[in-house]
Amino acid sequence: MPSAQDPFYVVKEEIQESIDKLQSTFHQWERIPSDTREQLHLTKELIFFIRSSLKPTLTDGTSRDEKNNSNNNMEVESNLEGDLEEN
């Protein structure tokens, strides 16, 4: 039985709530006639929501920061060299 305190389930619930809000806003956007102020407002809201939802994903440990990648690459190469020297 999943625990309400388990971080996995807490995050899973937060993600599901975000998906539900995004889908609801998108369906509202689909029903609004084009070139209206309301559609423009919802378009901006959707763009903001998507960007803000993706930002934590892009800034966690899997970011594409070149400096961090080069440090990780140097670490991997160093470990490989150490393994080769042992054999």
From TrEMBL:
State the annotated membrane topology for this chain. Single-pass type IV membrane protein
Enumerate the UniProt keywords alphabetically.
Protein transport, Transport
Q: Pfam families from the xrefs?
A: STX6_10_61_N
Spell out the protein name for this chain. Syntaxin 6/10/61 N-terminal domain-containing protein
Q: Where is this region: Disordered?
A: 56-87
Q: Name one GO biological process term.
A: protein transport
Where's the Syntaxin 6/10/61 N-terminal domain? 6-46
User: What's the source species for this entry?
Assistant: Lithocarpus litseifolius
The subcellular location is:
Endomembrane system
